[in-house]
Amino acid sequence: MTAQPAARACLSQVGKQYGQHWAVRDLNLELKPGELFAFLGPNGAGKTTTIKLLCGLLRPTLGTIEVGGFNLATHGLQARAQMSYVPDLPYCYEHLTAREFLELAADLHGMDQDYARTRMDEVIRLFELDRFIDQLTERFSHGMRQRTVFAAAMLPEPKLLITDEPTVGLDPRSVRQLKDILRAHTAKGNTVFLSSHSLDVVEQLADRIGIILGGKLIGCGTLEELRGQAAHNGPLEDVFLKLTQPEEQPAGMDTP
C-alpha cells in the first residue's frame, strides 16, 4: 500500500463543560508526527475527558480538534480513520477468537483483504499471539486481552495511536516488548499519545510531556523543560509532584 502522510493532531482552545463544571478548559495542544507524547495528571484532572475528546467519543463545548487536517466535528470519519485507541480496560468480544477479533478490526477499518492478511500475520508475531490466536477471548487473562486489543489497534498502522494506561496487567517482559513496539511506531513517523500513572515508563519513553491539573494544561515540554518550570532537577516523579502540589495557603488562613 502507498504510505500515507503523517498525521498532525491539534487541539485549539478546547473546553468541555458538564453542567456548571468545566472538566477541560482552554486546552491548546499540538501532537507532532514521530513523537511519543505523554499526558499526565492526578485523578480527576481531566485526562480521560481529553482522551475521549481526541478520539471523537465526546464533542467539545468550545474549541476545535483536528487530526491530519480534518476537523473531528465536521469530518469525523476522515479524522478517526487515521487513529486507533486502546482504553485502560481492554474489551474483546468474548465469543470471538483472537483471530476473529483481528478480522473484525480489519473489516471495521475497511482494510484491503490481502493487506489485512499480511498485517494480521505481522501483529500476531509482534505481540506473540500464536499460541492462543484461535482461542475464545473469554478465556484470556487481562494481559492476554491487552495484547490482543493492542494488536487490533496496530493492525491498520495508525498515524495516531492513543493509549490509556497501556502497561497495566502486563508482565515485565511484555512491558519491555510494548515499549519497543511504541518506539518503533514513532520511528516510522507516527504519533503516540500515552496517558499513564507509570512515571518510570513515561520518563523512559516520552519525547514531550503534558501535565493537566483542574482541567488546565499547567506544563508541556521535554523533561528538561518541565524541570526548569518546576525549579527541580530530579526524576519525573519529583517534578510531577512539585508541579501538581496544592498551593500553600498564607499563614493565618484556616481551611473551612
Q: Characterize the largest beta sheet: strand count, sense, and whether it forms a barrel.
A: 6 strands, mixed
Query: How much helix is in the residues?
Result: 25-40%
Strands, total number: 10
Please compute the radius of gyration using only Cα atoms: 19 Å
- Spans with pLDDT under 50 lasting ≥5 residues? 249-256
Q: What is the CATH first-level class name of the largest domain?
A: Alpha Beta
The number of distinct helices, counting runs of at least 4 residues, comes to 9
* CATH topology heading of the largest domain: Rossmann fold
**Main structural class:** alpha/beta
Strand order across the largest sheet: 6-7-8-3-9-10
Question: How many structural domains?
Answer: 2
Report strand %. 15-25%
Instruction: Note the overall shape.
Output: globular
CATH architecture of the largest domain: 3-Layer(aba) Sandwich
Series of secondary-structure elements, N-terminal to C-terminal: EEEHEEHEHHHEHEHEEHH
CATH homolog superfamily of the largest domain? P-loop containing nucleotide triphosphate hydrolases
N- to C-terminal distance: 63 Å
Q: How confident is the prediction overall: mean pLDDT? A: 92
